[in-house]
């Protein structure tokens, strides 16, 4: 995401212009835009025109509209974001108050206008526009003849390439054809990785499969690496298990998983230091007891401004008290698990047995 303009006054009112450059950027936009916000973007409008003779013709024109958002729809599979609302700035094609649907797209700028930009929204913009925050983990999920090359960010998992190669069955007298098919499949996967994985950003590549497919692919890939076919790329991170563990632990998504795992352990071993649900977490915060606060980003998409403000204020307060705040993406498995725990949970600095009894 690229920020092209920002004007927010001291009271939090203002606008930010953004240019989505990747699929994930539209997910960030979905989390930023709330019901009641105004969005300005380029769009296509069907226009009826009447000639002097009374006949009418219709044409499609591109124009810029500003709508006050009444409905938001995000397709997680296609990473498509659609906004519906009434036009707030009249132009030659669309009257004031007329309904229109805006489709936000990659590489097409939009401006988001809010009555109040809270801290969580501003941090989301800063995070989305920070190039160092892009996908730092890649994954290859495979079986014989089929592989998906994915980039794992802290917000979502993006499938960048699907590889499908027909491999002849391994029969007596046909082993050589089977072997050739396997190598053709492996080579195609390797080329896909080189094409879609930026090793200046990615710290680790995970390979996953049923059975021994991953091991056979890994062995073949390392053979190619030793033959210097991949000499310019950082494949060495895959060769040492200790390096892989260290690199994986340093990824952003791993930090959230680690926190949630620590919460579950604490819930079993020392339950008076692990709480979930807004009421209990708020009481723990009043006692300045929260060491780690975990919040699902789905809670910040609440249509009620007051409900969103409750969680924004909680985040601010925990940080003011020296606590660590982790905002989980609801598109990650860890975020889904947190949503099952009401979407908010906390690990405390010290036990609160009285709160546990409640």
TrEMBL record:
Where is the protein localized? Answer: Cytoplasm
For this chain, one GO molecular function annotation is: metal ion binding
Signal peptide position in this chain? none
**Which Pfam families does the UniProt record give?**
eRF1_2, eRF1_3, Pelota_N
- Known cofactor(s): a divalent metal cation
Which InterPro entries is this protein grouped with? eFR1_2_sf, eRF1_2, eRF1_3, eRF1_Pelota-like_N, Pelota/DOM34_N, Pelota_N, Ribosomal_eL30-like_sf, TF_pelota
Protein's recorded name: Protein pelota homolog
Q: Tell me the classification of the organism that encodes this protein.
A: Eukaryota, Metazoa, Ecdysozoa, Arthropoda, Crustacea
